[in-house]
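Homework help board

Subject: predicted structure for assignment chain

Our instructor gave us this sequence and asked us to write out the predicted structure in token form, then describe one feature. I got the tokens but I'm not sure how to describe them. Can anyone check?
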Amino acid sequence: MLGAKIKILITTLGVAGFLLLLAWTEARAIPSFTRQTGMACNACHTVFPELTPFGRTFKLGGYTLSKSGKSYEFPPPLSAGAQFSFTNVEKSMPPKTPAFESRGNDNVNAPQNLSLYYGGKIYAHLGTLTQGNYDGVSNKFLLYQSDLRYARTTTIGDKGLNLIYGLTLNNNPTVQDVWNSTPARSFRYVFPTVGPFPGATAKIDNALGLQVGGIGAYAFWNNLVYAEVSLYRTARKGPFQFLGAGTVTREMVDGFAPYWRVALQHNWKQHSFELGTYGMAVRVFPADQSRGASDQFTDVGLDAQYQYLLKKHLFSAQTTWIHEEQNRDASVALGRAARRSNSLDTFRINLNYWYRSGIGALGGSVGYFSTTGTRDALLYPGEVPLFGSRTGQPHTNGFVLEADYLPWDKTKISIQYTIYDRFNGARTNYDGLGRNAADNNTLYLNVWFII
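My token output:
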């Protein structure tokens, strides 16, 4: 049995390695953003996908900065990517769950996904970063993260203060954000798609991702103050339908959901610091419902990011806290929740360090995560394999340890270990079926490259 697992792992790594060798010549031919701007990858990224101050300005400017100065790019700014992964869970998972089918505690995804990106200028001041995915786990094609922008830059007053302003059309609240401290683009940048995950998530914390479409207006003044207001609705039908292509709608939004974002940034020498707030108010129908009464969720988040970037040494830290107030009148009426008023609190912090050596960038991250909330035995039921909560509580916390190696630009090898101290409300027998939090500790190997 062990020998068979080792053979599977070696085969997966061999396939990934072979494809990486094929991509070696292409790795020197830079991806679409680099081809468009003529700048090295590390101008925009510390270690991708984390952005540098210049990378944030490039994104806010609509992905349109170009060395050619032409209104459009030819050939079009296309890139492709792939991820291969191996996931090992401490104790075997059920072979079939509502979220995925498992091979126990050793899962090889070859590929985990294949991606096609349109990243750069479309025409003049209009640009995008749009990602289409083939999901190797579900065997489906879908439109993944998408951010379409129209942006302009101007100067104000005699001192020539800079103002970037524009519009964004996207399919995941916070995917348009330029700091890596808000949910859509935050650590962990790679993660198992087959594995244990907690039963409670705030709506703004990727719960609505790919299922909604939204349009917003933003402004960034003097490289200091950022403000944005957006409106989202379900992308199941209507003008936003294309933004949810290939995704099953599990969270049906009732009407429109406003989103807001305010941030202060200060750059000095090699340092950069950001402090901000973001939030969303959304009404969501209970599962399998699309009309009638809906539940109300109000999310308010605080976030911060610090970067210290030298030529060879890179240090960064990100943190966020999200408080969600829930009014579950509709769920109570259907017998799916015991309490009308609930709350959920999420906290995450991660520290990152990388060293740019002669053989590539090496480094890693240490992260801590915590989710707490109101006890509700109907909302968080027990005796559900892997995902149940014997205590009726969503409490989950633990650590993520990750080591990364980038042998060349746009190729990343990550080894990640997630340690659960508490899972869905308890350390031991959390699901009422004998499973412990530590049984969900997960080893995850990911090979990711983009050409």
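Reply (TA_rk): Your tokens look well-formed. For the description, you could write something like this. The first helix runs from residue 2 to 28. That's the kind of observation they're looking for.
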